[in-house]
């Protein structure tokens, strides 16, 4: 399978790269989009009154969908599945996964591979969840729209995709346990869904940026939460490690909205921490705005903004309350039992590489099987585009067989 994959990868790498650049250009030139309508009025998103008798990952409702309004013209079958999961507080909740399967028969060895793709939701509203974006029309303020080229690559190889709304019904951005559980249960739902042939599929996970956070939390929780899932490998890039450092790097710059989004996420995820007590009256309107728009759509509004404009603390991201809240969500406290491929730009302007080096050292010290790549490609988006082929190559190799145990650096 590896040689066949490499031939396909070489043939499709340029196509994927061109598509990524085209989508990035379209978004950079587009006017700021108004807040999208949340999917909540859609009855499909309404959880059944009684969730008893179901187990995590059970499909509860499903429907056929047309991806971006294009599926009828593509050789794909697509569904959205409502499924049961458990949030970080132990409560049963439902969320949505989008499953895409090529209509052509799988001609490789064994069963068709299934790839769980963790899109970077980076939002505090369900209007920006992958399921809302994928059923179209194109929403240029949603990161999932930019992910379309990365979704096409695996489909070109004949793999099936499951794209979970891993932030759940409350849009819990940077909630590690919620993200990991919902992603794993999304895989369960795709494998149990009777309209697909994925019950025996080898399964990989791929995520970049906010999606990498969810992918790695799924790897950390796999052994305890979903050990029956045959996860062959996880590829994660642009890795959000050291949340306060990410906020500090964004603060006052062109992507200052990220610092505000992180603050709002910590407030939502840690309601007992009283983070609101560290903010001033000006923060009220900002938080209301940040919690109803997609992360990408916030960038132009808050470029150059400083968190001190909304805070009564001298240095908000060094305050013990913020540090404690962020620490509970940080990666690295649990050994993933799934082989990892971690990649990151040494010149990532959004996520300082020091935190990623520390995370990899931590994973290696606690026994992870890990391949690392620190890229010379500058920029968060640049590395996402250029290094995607390495992630796909790693996942294709893992579908063919396990790696050699241990931590290894790549050139």
Keywords, please?
single chain; 411 residues; 14 helices; 10 strands
Summarize the structure.
With 411 residues, the protein is an alpha/beta fold. It is built from 14 helices and 10 strands.
Structure description:
Helix 1 (2-29) packs antiparallel against helix 14 (388-400) and helix 7 (243-250) packs antiparallel against helix 8. This protein has 411 residues and is an alpha/beta fold. The chain folds into two domains: 2-30 and 62-241 and 336-409, Alpha/Beta hydrolase fold, catalytic domain (Rossmann fold); 244-327, Orthogonal Bundle (434 Repressor (Amino-terminal Domain)). The protein has a ten-stranded mixed sheet with strand order 1-2-3-5-4-6-7-8-9-10, sandwiched between helices. It has helices at 2-29, 130-134, 143-146, 148-156, 176-192, 210-225, 243-250, 257-269, 283-290, 295-302, 320-327, 353-365, 380-386, 388-400, and strands at residues 59-64, 76-86, 92-102, 114-118, 160-164, 203-208, 231-237, 340-345, 370-375, 407-409. Helix 6 links the parallel strand 6 and strand 7 (231-237).
């Amino acid at each position: 399978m590896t040689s066949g994959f490499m031939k396909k990868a070489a043939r499709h790498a340029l196509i994927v790269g061109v598509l990524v650049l085209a989508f990035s250009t379209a978004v950079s030139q587009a006017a700021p989009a108004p807040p999208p309508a949340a999917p909540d009025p859609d009855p499909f998103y309404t959880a059944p009154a009684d969730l008893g008798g179901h187990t995590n990952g059970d499909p509860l409702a499903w429907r056929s969908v047309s991806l971006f309004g294009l599926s009828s013209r593509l050789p794909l079958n697509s569904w959205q599945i409502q499924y049961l999961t458990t949030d970080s507080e132990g409560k049963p909740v439902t969320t949505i996964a989008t499953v895409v399967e090529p209509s052509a028969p799988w001609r490789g060895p064994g069963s068709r591979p299934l790839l769980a793709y963790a899109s970077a939701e980076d939002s505090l509203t369900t209007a920006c969840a992958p399921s809302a974006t994928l059923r179209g029309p194109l929403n240029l303020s949603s990161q999932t729209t930019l992910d379309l080229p990365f979704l096409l690559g695996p489909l070109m190889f004949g793999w099936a995709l499951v794209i979970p709304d891993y932030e759940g019904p409350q849009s819990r951005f940077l909630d590690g346990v919620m993200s990991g559980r919902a992603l794993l249960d999304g895989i369960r739902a795709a494998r149990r869904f009777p309209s697909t042939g994925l019950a025996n599929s080898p399964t990989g996970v791929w995520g970049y940026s906010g999606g990498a956070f969810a992918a790695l939390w799924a790897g950390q929780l796999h052994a305890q939460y979903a050990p029956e899932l045959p996860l062959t490998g996880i590829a994660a890039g642009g890795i959000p490690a050291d949340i306060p450092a990410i906020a500090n790097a964004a603060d006052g710059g062109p992507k200052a909205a990220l610092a505000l989004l992180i603050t709002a996420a910590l407030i939502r995820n840690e309601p007992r921490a009283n983070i609101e007590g560290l903010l001033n009256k000006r923060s009220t309107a900002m938080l209301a705005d940040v919690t109803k728009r997609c992360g990408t759509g916030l960038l132009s509004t808050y470029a150059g903004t400083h968190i001190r404009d909304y805070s009564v603390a001298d240095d908000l991201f060094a305050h013990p309350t913020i540090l404690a809240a962020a620490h509970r969500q940080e990666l690295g406290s649990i050994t993933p039992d799934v082989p990892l491929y971690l990649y990151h730009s040494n010149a990532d302007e959004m996520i300082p590489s020091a935190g990623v080096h520390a995370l990899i050292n931590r994973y290696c010290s606690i026994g992870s099987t890990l391949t690392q790549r620190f890229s010379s490609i500058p920029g968060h988006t640049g590395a996402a585009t250029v290094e995607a082929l390495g992630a796909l190559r790693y996942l294709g190799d893992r579908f063919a067989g396990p790696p050699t145990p241990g931590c290894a650096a790549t050139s």
